[in-house]
Structure to design on (190 residues):
């Protein structure tokens, strides 16, 4: 049976709520890894079984992912900050090299964003457990299918652009849609 408009509205509101809950769960910076992993696992379950996991399952996943998610969160934040600062310093002329260094730095930023997106998908497939195994699997996927890295980076770039264009209060809603889009793109390319 073809889904009706009410199914579309329900799914959209579920993803919006997931984004809001992910943003709230990420407010304590060290909890961001657990929040993203739990949201990704929920999206994976919803994509595979067409139903959301039970609240008890979701809370258990979040609790299990808290400590293991701290280091990947800090590593990810530090990497993004360093790459953006490096790119800003190069493009402003603070560091010699200009365009010759800006292009490889930008490409490195794109690759990192794509691999981060693939890692989010992999952590969801693993039930919100095993960040390092998910990162290794994402790297293997990226090496086997470079277009998956580009697609993940494209999703992240689109979400970032939308985040700059919409009312700031709505930015958390994008998190749920971003995680869903990453899963959809990864599923399509696999």
């Amino acid at each position: 049976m073809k889904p009706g408009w009410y199914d579309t509205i329900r799914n959209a509101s579920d993803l919006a709520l997931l984004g809001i809950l992910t943003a709230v769960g990420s407010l304590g910076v060290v909890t961001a890894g657990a929040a993203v992993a739990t949201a990704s696992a929920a999206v994976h379950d919803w994509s595979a079984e067409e139903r959301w996991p039970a609240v008890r399952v979701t809370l258990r996943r979040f609790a299990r992912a808290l400590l293991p998610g701290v280091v990947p969160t800090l590593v990810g934040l530090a990497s993004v900050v360093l790459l953006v600062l490096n790119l800003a310093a190069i493009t402003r002329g603070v560091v010699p090299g200009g365009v010759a260094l800006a292009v490889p730095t930008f490409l490195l930023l794109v690759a990192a964003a794509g691999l981060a997106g693939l890692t989010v998908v992999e952590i969801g497939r693993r039930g919100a457990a095993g960040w390092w195994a998910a990162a290794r699997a994402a790297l293997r996927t990226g090496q086997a299918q470079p277009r998956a890295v580009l697609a993940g980076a494209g999703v992240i770039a689109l979400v970032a652009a939308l985040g700059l264009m919409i009312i700031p209060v709505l930015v958390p809603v994008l998190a749920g849609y971003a995680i869903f889009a990453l899963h959809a793109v990864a599923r399509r390319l696999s």
